Hints:
The protein is an alpha+beta fold. It folds into 2 domains: 8-79, Phosphorylase Kinase, domain 1 (2-Layer Sandwich), CATH 3.30.200; 84-236, Alpha-Beta Complex (Aminoglycoside 3'-phosphotransferase, Chain: A, domain 2). It is 48% helix and 15% strand. It has helices spanning 8-13, 45-60, 86-94, 102-125, 161-172, 180-197, 202-217, 223-236, and strands spanning 15-16, 26-32, 35-41, 68-72, 75-79, 84-85, 140-143, 146-149. Strand 2 (26-32) and strand 3 form a beta hairpin. Helix 5 (161-172) packs antiparallel against helix 6 (180-197) and helix 7 (202-217) runs antiparallel to helix 8.
Amino acid sequence: MVRPNPKLEELRGNMLGTEFKSRKNRVFRATDQGMTVVVKEFSDSEVASKEFSVLMRCSAGSLPVPRPLSTHTRAIVMESLSGETVAEALDSVWLGTGPISADERAKLLDIVDGLGEWLARYHALFEFRMTRGDAIMKNFLVSDGRIVGIDFEEASEEDVIRDLGEMCSSILSMHPMFTGDKLALCRRLSERYFELTGAERAADLSAATAKALRHYANYRTDGGELVARAAVIESDGLFS
């Protein structure tokens, strides 16, 4: 049951801490009726409405996302979740000192399996007609031992292989980049997704990953390497 729309000015006045980093929107925690919530303000009311609708459908389908609480002109209010982003969780392993331990290896496998399962459920929920968009590791949380999807403003009706390609490009381009370990995790991720969806689109995944690498290269100082790797993947395939 969605609660009545809160007064946005009141929420701004009840902001907790500093705003989250966001290139496009204003996102912050606030208190509302004694509860800590996350408020996301958009520049476009249609985008706000779209993300709220996606959250509502995911929540109704028991897919882990922040529970949508209310909507306001160009803003949505969601539950606040504890945990860390998948990017932070992966970095804690990959940027550590020394070889990866057995426990850390198990953590990596649990995360990629969870990502594959979450994405398969999302696409099935939308009948394989809707991408979640911007499926990078910063847009997933590890919260209470489960993978939670966040940030759906780029959801769109297009080929869903885009999301899996963005996931793989995000993993591969995390430092240290394009290692054999990261490639193996992308293989496991895609195999888990294909197993659950009944799809087998390795060739399409290669093209989608290369496209995603080129896109995200525009926002990286090391974008030249991402573009070069994209060309190799297009030529030889992701898992050649």
